[in-house]
Every structure is written in C-alpha cells, then in structure tokens.
Amino acid sequence: MEIFVETLEKALKFSFEETHIWAQYGLTFHAAGNPSRKSMSTIKEGARHSKRPASLLLMKAQEEFLRGWIAEGLKTVKEAKGEGGHKLMQKVWLYEGIGEFLMSFSQSTNRMKMNHLTNSLNALQK
Predict the structure, then answer these.
(1) How many angstroms separate the CA atoms of 99 and 71, rounded?
(2) CA within 20 to 30 Å of 60's CA: 46, 71, 92, 125, which one?
(3) Other Cβ atoms closer than 10 A to 8
(4) CA distance 58 to 46
C-alpha cells in the first residue's frame, strides 16, 4: 500500500485538480482498512472535485460509521442524497437506513429509539 500512497502523493503535486487522482488516493486509504482523518479529508476533497460525488460521499459516510461518528455519517449520506443520481439512490437509502439504525443505539429514551428505528425501516423499504 505504501507504494500506491507515495505514487499518488507525487501525482497530486503535478495534477492537483484531477478528480480521478483524488478518488484513487482516497480509495487507497479506504482499501488499507484504517480510516483516518487523512483518508476522510482525501475522499471529501475528491468529492468536491467530482462532477458526480455521491459514491465518494458514501465511502466517506461508511468510514464515519466505522469510527462511530454516526451523526456526521448521516449528514454525509444526506449530502450524497442531494448529489446522487438514480443509479445510486438504492445505496444511499441503504446507508441512510444503516445510519438511522446505528443512531438508535445512542438514544436514551424509547421514543427517540423508536423514531430512529422507524426512519431506518422507512429508508430500507424504499
């Protein structure tokens, strides 16, 4: 993995605005399996440069869910929902359902838990 990271870091020095290089750089961190601030900021930057950023935003949401940042992950999923085309909407609803389900565990009252579980079920049934 190190050689990929080095190569893509050098490529970014010469082609900073190239979307595919940012996306590949973020995918390299994602494939390594160790979510970090650098990987998430790289994916976010790639999404900023991309014409169709929904897939990169969903990858960022997945890393936020893995780190336990459920609220941030749900924000990212909602951002992807606004950016996504019809091809990715099923994946967006899946991530929204997963995020709402995870959010239900952090709630202290049964009413809030049920609200998040209902939102999760609604998203998964779309």
Answers:
(1) 8
(2) 125
(3) 18
(4) 12
Whether the CB-CB separation of 115 and 106 falls below 8 Å is answered with no
Q: How many residues does the chain have?
A: 126
Residue 7 has, within 13 A of its CA and on its CB side, a CA count of: 7
Question: Which residues, other chains included, contact 12 with Cβ-Cβ below 8 Å and sequence gap of 6+?
Answer: 21, 22, 25
Instruction: Enumerate the domain spans of the chain.
Output: 1-51, 53-126
> For residue range 53-105, what is the model confidence (pLDDT) as tens digits?
888 889 889 988 988 999 999 999 999 988 766 788 999 999 999 999 999 99
Q: Is there a contact between 49 and 19 (Cβ–Cβ < 8 Å)?
A: yes
Rounded-to-integer distance, Cα 37 and Cα 64, Å: 10
DSSP state of 109: S
Q: What is the torsional sign of CA 75, 76, 82, 84?
A: negative
